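(Deposited chain)
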Amino acid sequence: SQPPLTYWGGVRLANGDNKCSGRVEVLRHDQWGTVCDHGWDMREANVVCLELGCGLAESATLGAAFGAGRGEIWLRHVQCTGHESSLTRCGVILHNNSYCSHENDAGVKCSVLTSPAPPRSMPRAPTRATTTACIVSSWVDAPLSPEKASPCQ
């Protein structure tokens, strides 16, 4: 079985046309290894692209589209929801006995951004729907709750 991904290092793209496309590789014990394409789709690709500041994924590539890697295949069946801040935060399907070789190395093509993406770990300001309502004869933006608002006369 594979150790929890929180003990793993970074993620990079190798052998692509630019810094935002290529074979997906992950670092573990100071050694880069590849990711098997079993279960690989746009959810995992989006997580990788966003993590690397490369926008959203244009495609999730299968079958060593960016060439076969070397060394370990560190991840054999990654499953992301698409909302993780890093590929290393995604789940893995353990005890997956399907055969994987470097001919199954996963890759991504990202939509390259012209400016760096903000870190995904930054909290977003909460958004709240508002309505303009009359409270004590004054117009204000209040939380959307029509039953509490009455039109100003």
Remarks:
- The first strand starts at residue 11 and ends at 14.
- The two ends are 69 Å apart (CA to CA).
